[in-house]
Amino acid sequence: MLRLMIDRLSQTSLCGRCRAWGQSLALAVLATCVSVWAPESLYAQATKPAAAVSRFEDKTLVTKDGIPLKISYFAGKKGKDTPVVILLHGKKGSRQNFNSSLAPFLNDAGYAVVTVDLRGHGETPLVPGPAVAPGATKNNAPQLKPRDYQAMIPGDLEAVKKFLYDEHMAEKLNMSKLAILGADFSTAIATAYTELDWSKIPWDDAPTVAARTPRGQDVRALVLLSPEGSIQGMNTAQSETAVRILGLPVLIGVGSKDTADKGAAKKLAEKLNPDKRDHIYLETYEGGLRGTGLLGRKLKTEDHILAFLDKYVGKSTIEWRDRRSRLER
């Protein structure tokens, strides 16, 4: 399986919308993959006690419906060429599932990273009001209703995107090089937000659509750990179809003995890739772990994620551009 992954990462061209990134990445990607799957993984080396740990800053964003959304921000070091990853936790989780593991690992590899406490999780309350005290956690997952899951998309994720827009305009990152990772229930949030992001109509500031300034179309890749086939109140089939039509690259990870999976990961991979192209990856990891449980277990999950992100986002040649309408500059 790992040899197949290496072959795919080094030999395949990019999906239809990303093909312009060019074949010039092939040698660089191959070099990355060789180092990733060396006897001692990059993640294992990066998490040794002597390794440097990236610093992050906790921030509170406010969603359009008044929720104080807690995030941690790992700033990048490449200025306006910096790619970005949003990490979303799973059931009963929080951004702390990433802050001492995957987030600093990706940050050290050159990515700006945002970890999020979705509403009703971690330090983010379920209703408008003060945020939970730092260090404390309040998990309202059992109380979440369909409308709460739905609100995470135009509420929580849009607040994060607005934050990234501000960082982009300050030339601290390139929001057009964006990937989202979701775990169990938040895989549906990730795909639904991707659909929303790509549905945004560009500013009407140029004669042709191609020349107009985009308002969205920034999510370039998805990582889905233990994807769930259905979420209360959400049309997951619609957003999955949108991802398929867009031809976006997706890495799906699942435990080989995950009793909760019930074939959902394989079904999703087949749905996203009916033409058997090479931009959809299904990785199976030994054991019954699920979601963020697949991280930090010496399964090389982190290495696979980094190699995938490097291929489709990190080494993208998409240039930074002013995202304001030309009529407002």
From TrEMBL:
Give the AB hydrolase-1 domain ranges: 83-197
What is the top-level taxon of the source organism? Bacteria
- Alphabetized InterPro entries for the sequence: AB_hydrolase_1, AB_hydrolase_fold, AB_hydrolase_sf
GO CC annotations, alphabetized: membrane
Xref: PANTHER family = HYDROLASE, PUTATIVE (AFU_ORTHOLOGUE AFUA_2G14860)-RELATED, MONOACYLGLYCEROL LIPASE
According to UniProt, the name of this protein is: AB hydrolase-1 domain-containing protein
Task: Report the source organism.
Answer: Planctopirus limnophila (strain ATCC 43296 / DSM 3776 / IFAM 1008 / Mu 290)
Q: What is the lineage of its organism?
A: Bacteria, Pseudomonadati, Planctomycetota, Planctomycetia, Planctomycetales
